[in-house]
Design goal:
The complex is a heterodimer of chains A (251) and B (469).
Chain A: E1 3-12, E2 15-25, E3 30-34, H1 41-49, E4 55-63, E5 66-67, H2 73-78, E6 81-84, E7 91-95, H3 96-110, H4 118-131, E8 142-143, H5 149-163, E9 167-171, H6 179-192, E10 198-202, E11 216-221, E12 224-229, H7 232-240, H8 242-250
Parallel strand pairs in A: 3-10, 3-11, 6-9, 9-10
Antiparallel strand pairs in A: 1-2, 1-4, 4-5, 7-8, 11-12
Helix pairs in contact in A: 5-6
Chain B: H1 11-25, H2 31-47, H3 63-67, H4 82-85, E1 96-101, E2 104-106, E3 112-114, E4 120-123, H5 124-130, H6 132-138, H7 149-157, E5 162-166, E6 176-182, E7 188-198, E8 203-212, E9 218-228, E10 233-241, E11 246-256, E12 261-270, E13 273-282, E14 288-297, E15 302-311, E16 317-326, E17 331-340, E18 347-357, E19 363-372, E20 377-386, H8 390-398, H9 403-419, H10 425-439
Parallel strand pairs in B: 1-6, 5-7, 6-8, 7-9, 8-10, 9-11, 10-12, 11-13, 12-14, 13-15, 14-16, 15-17, 16-18, 17-19, 18-20
Antiparallel strand pairs in B: 1-2, 3-4, 4-5
Helix pairs in contact in B: 2-7, 5-6, 8-9, 9-10
Classes of the chains: A alpha/beta (251), B alpha/beta (469).
Chain lengths: 251, 469
C-alpha cells in the first residue's frame, strides 16, 4: 500500500476541519476526491503535503510503510509526494529552469544519486515540456510570474513530469481552466500514469473526470469521507448535486 | 605634517584644527575655492555635528562612532608598498584603476593622468594645481555645504581625492574603477573629496569601491560630486564592503544636464555604520536618473540611505528602487525625498523600498516621501517590509528543496532585481557570487578586501596601461 490515512483529524487555529478521514491508495490507482466547497478537500491535500499551519490532532498517515506526519515538507517531497497547487505561487527572480534543476538535484541527492549534468537536465526538460505541450519559452521565465491561469496549471503538470512523484495530489487543478487547457492538463496526467505511481485528484466538478478517468471516487463532506465508489459515483453526483449528500447525511 | 593626537570627533576639534591649519589646507586654493572653504567652515561651525534631534538623523545615532578616538592626518604619509595594499581586481574586469589609501590618491608615478583623448584622471589635489579653472568651474556646485554638516566639514578640510574629467563627446574606453581603501594600524578619521565631470555627450562607467582591509575602527567622511552634462551618460556603481568597526558617511551629489542619463547602483555588503546620502539635482530638461540600491546587513550593522531627488526643471524622470535584507540585529533606515518644484511639469518620479527581515530583532524604518508643487506629474511611492513569503517557502520545499536552500533562492531572487541591472558582465558575475556568499554568511572582511581577492594570475594593474586606453 502506498498511502494509508487512518482516522485523521486536523484543523487550523483550533478549528477542526478534518474529522476522521480514512483513505487507502495503492500504486497504479487514481482516486478522485469530490465534495462541496469548504468541506476539507484542500486541507486534506495540505496535511498530506505537510503545510505547517495545520495541526493534526488525531489519527495517522502511513506512506510507504513509514509515519508521514513526522517528515518535513521537503522530505515528503523527496520521498515522492507531489502537490499540484490550486493557486500556484508567483516567485519573481527564480527561473523555472533554476527552480527545477535545484529540485531535481536535491531529490537525486536524497536518493544517493549524482546531480544531473546541465546537458542531461536540459534534455529531460525539453522532453517533459513536450509531454505537457509547452511550446513557449516558459522555462526561462520566473516561476509563475505573469502567467495566465492556464499557464500556471500547465506549469504544475510540467513540474510533476520533471519530478516523477510516486503520489501526486492535484488540488483543484481544473479550477479556472478553459476546455483546451483542461485537456492539456489531463493529457499530461494520463501520460504520466504508471503501475508504480498513484494520483489523488481533488475536484469540485465532474468535468475533469471525463478526461482523467478515476478508479475510485470519494465524497468528502464535513471533514469525513461519507461515500466511496467507482467512476460512476461522479456521474451520479453531477446528476443529483451535492444536496443529495447533504440530505443523506442529515437523514 | 599636521598630524593630530588621537581624539574623539567633536566640533571643537575641527574648529581648533581649522584655525591652526587653515593655511596648510588652502595652500593650493584659488581665491574662489578659499572663499568656499572658509564659508563651508562657517556653515559647519553653525550646523555642528549631526545628532538624533535632527529629523534626517533621527534614526541614525552617531554618538558611539563619534566618541571613539581617531587620528586625523592632514597630510599624506608615504606609502611603502602600494602593491601590498591594492592586490588585484575582479577577475577579467578590465578597468582603469585609480587608487586611494585612507583618503589620499596613490599613484606609482604620475599623480594625474592626461590621456590622448583629453580624459584626465587622478589626484584632485594635483588637478587643482594643474587645472584650477576646470576644477573651479564644477567644484562645490552640487554639494550642499549650507545644509549638510558633513559636506561642509568635507569642503572645509578638502585636500585630496580623485578627479575624473571626460571631455565633451568622449566615451571612456573602459570603466574607471575608483578603489578607496582604508588600512592603517591606527584608528583613522579620514575625509576625501572626489569630483567627476562627464562632458556634453560624453559617457563613463564608474565603479567606486569603499573597502577596508583590516578590523581597525575608522570614520570616513567622503563627498563625491558628479556632473553629467547635457546628453552625457553615466553608469555608476558604489560598492561598500567595510569592516564592522567602521563608520562611513558617504555623500554622492549628482547634477544632471539636459537629456543627461544616470544609472546608479549602490550595493552595501558590509560596514559598521553606513550612511549614504544620495543627492540628485536636475539642471536640464528630459534628463533621467535611475537609482538602485541593495543592502545586506547582519550582526549589529546599521545602514541609512538618505536620498533626495530635486525635480527643479520640467520633463525629467527619476526612479528609486532600494531593497534590503536584514539579519540578526541589523538596522536599516530609508528616507527617500522627492521634491517636484512648481516649474517641473511632466515629472515622472517613482520610489520603491522593499525589505526582508530575517529575524525579530532586525529593524527597518522606511519613509518614502513625495513633495509635489506641480499638478502635471506622475509620481508613485511604495514601501514594504516583511518576512520571506511563507507561501513561496512552502512551494519550493514541496518540490523537494530544503529549507535553507529555499531561503537562499528567495533571498537571492529578491536581491537579483538589483544585481541583474549591473551592466558590466564581470562585475555582475562577481556580485552575484558575493551576494550568494553574503547571504550564506560566508562573506566577511578578512585580511584583504573581498572585492579584490588575490589571484596570482591577475596581478595588480594599478598604473593605467596606456596601450589599452
Amino acid at each position: 500500500m502506498l498511502l494509508q490515512i487512518k482516522d485523521l483529524h486536523a484543523g487550523i487555529n483550533g478549528k477542526e476541519i478534518l474529522r476522521g478521514v480514512n483513505l487507502e491508495v495503492n500504486k497504479g490507482e487514481v482516486h478522485a476526491i469530490m465534495g462541496p466547497n469548504g468541506t476539507g478537500k484542500s486541507t486534506l491535500a495540505s496535511v498530506i503535503a505537510g503545510r505547517e499551519v495545520f495541526d493534526v490532532t488525531r489519527g495517522e498517515v502511513v506512506y510507504k510503510g513509514t509515519d508521514l506526519l513526522g517528515l518535513a515538507v521537503e522530505d515528503r517531497a523527496r520521498e515522492g509526494i507531489f502537490l499540484g497547487f490550486q493557486y500556484p505561487v508567483e516567485i519573481p527572480g527564480v527561473s523555472i529552469n533554476n527552480f527545477m534543476r535545484t529540485a531535481v538535484n536535491e531529490i537525486r541527492k536524497h536518493k544517493g544519486l549524482d546531480p544531473l549534468s546541465g546537458g542531461d537536465f536540459l534534455r529531460v526538460m525539453e522532453e517533459r515540456k513536450r509531454l505537457v505541450e509547452i511550446t513557449s519559452n516558459l522555462t526561462n521565465r520566473s516561476v509563475n510570474e505573469g502567467f495566465s491561469g492556464g499557464e500556471k496549471k500547465k506549469n504544475e503538470i510540467f513540474q510533476m513530469a520533471m519530478l516523477e512523484p510516486e503520489l501526486a495530489i492535484l488540488d483543484e487543478t481544473d479550477s479556472g481552466l478553459d476546455i483546451d487547457a483542461l485537456r492539456i492538463v489531463a493529457n499530461g496526467v494520463n501520460k504520466l500514469r504508471r503501475p508504480d505511481n498513484a494520483f489523488v485528484v481533488i475536484t469540485h466538478y465532474q468535468r475533469l473526470l471525463e478526461y482523467i478517468v478515476p478508479d475510485f471516487v470519494h465524497v468528502l463532506f464535513q471533514g469525513r469521507i461519507v461515500k466511496s465508489g467507482g467512476k460512476e459515483l461522479a456521474l451520479e453526483l453531477e446528476e443529483k448535486g451535492y444536496d443529495w449528500i447533504k440530505k443523506e447525511q442529515e437523514a | 605634517m599636521g598630524t593630530e593626537t588621537k581624539e574623539p570627533v567633536t566640533l571643537e576639534r575641527f574648529i581648533r584644527l581649522y584655525g591652526k591649519h587653515r593655511n596648510l589646507l588652502s595652500g593650493d586654493d584659488t581665491a574662489q575655492m578659499a572663499t568656499l572653504r572658509d564659508r563651508a567652515m562657517d556653515h559647519f561651525a553653525e550646523l555642528g555635528l549631526p545628532h538624533t534631534g535632527l529629523e534626517s538623523w533621527r534614526l541614525t545615532d552617531l554618538t558611539e562612532s563619534l566618541s571613539r578616538e581617531y587620528i586625523y592626518h592632514l597630510g599624506q604619509r608615504t606609502v611603502e608598498d602600494i602593491h601590498k595594499v591594492f592586490r588585484c581586481t575582479i577577475p577579467h574586469l578590465d578597468t582603469a584603476v585609480i587608487g586611494q589609501l585612507n583618503g589620499w590618491h596613490v599613484s606609482k608615478d604620475v599623480p594625474l593622468m592626461e590621456l590622448g583623448n583629453g580624459i584626465i584622471m587622478g589626484s584632485l589635489s594635483e588637478a587643482r594645481k594643474k587645472y584650477p579653472q576646470l576644477v573651479e568651474k564644477y567644484y562645490g556646485t552640487v554639494a550642499d555645504d549650507a545644509g549638510e554638516a558633513f559636506t561642509a566639514l568635507n569642503t572645509a578640510f578638502a585636500q585630496d581625492g580623485v578627479f575624473i574629467y571626460i571631455p565633451d563627446n568622449v566615451r571612456s574606453p573602459k570603466p574607471v574603477q575608483l578603489i578607496n581603501v582604508i588600512h592603517d594600524e591606527e584608528n583613522l578619521f579620514l575625509q576625501s573629496r572626489n569630483l567627476v565631470v562627464v562632458g556634453n555627450g560624453a559617457r563613463l562607467s564608474l565603479v567606486h569601491c569603499d573597502d577596508s582591509y583590516n578590523h581597525q575602527p575608522s570614520f570616513s567622511n567622503i563627498v563625491t560630486e558628479v556632473h553629467v552634462s547635457d546628453h552625457g551618460a553615466l553608469d555608476h556603481y558604489k560598492l561598500q564592503s567595510l569592516n564592522n568597526n567602521s563608520t562611513l558617511v558617504s555623500t554622492v551629489a549628482f547634477g544632471l544636464g539636459e537629456e543627461a542619463s544616470l544609472e546608479s547602483h549602490f550595493i552595501s555588503l558590509n560596514g559598521g555604520l553606513l550612511r549614504n546620502n544620495i543627492r540628485v539635482a536636475f539642471h536640464g530638461r528630459n534628463a533621467r536618473a535611475d537609482l538602485m540600491g541593495l543592502y545586506l546587513m547582519d550582526r549589529k550593522q546599521h545602514v541609512d540611505y538618505n536620498v533626495f531627488v530635486d525635480h527643479a526643471v520640467p520633463h525629467c524622470t527619476s526612479t528609486e528602487t532600494f531593497k534590503g535584507i536584514l539579519d540578526e540585529h541589523a538596522r536599516a533606515v530609508f528616507n527617500g525625498h522627492v521634491l517636484v518644484r512648481q516649474d517641473a511639469a511632466g515629472t515622472d518620479a517613482r520610489q520603491s523600498n522593499r525589505n526582508i527581515l530575517l529575524t525579530d530583532t532586525a529593524r527597518v524604518n522606511s519613509k518614502p516621501f513625495l513633495e509635489i508643487y506641480n499638478d502635471d506629474v506622475k509620481c508613485s511611492h511604495g514601501s514594504t517590509t516583511g518576512q520571506l513569503d511563507q507561501e513561496s517557502m512552502f512551494y519550493l520545499r514541496q518540490r523537494g528543496i530544503g529549507e535553507e536552500t529555499a531561503r537562499m533562492l528567495l533571498m537571492f531572487a529578491f536581491a537579483d532585481e538589483i544585481v541583474s541591472k549591473i551592466a558590466i558582465p564581470q562585475l555582475r558575475l562577481r556580485l552575484e557570487d558575493m551576494v550568494k556568499k553574503r547571504l550564506q554568511g560566508e562573506l566577511q572582511i578578512c585580511e584583504q578586501c573581498v572585492l579584490h581577492c588575490s589571484t596570482p594570475e591577475h596581478p595588480v594593474e594599478f598604473r593605467i596601461d596606456m596601450g589599452k586606453v
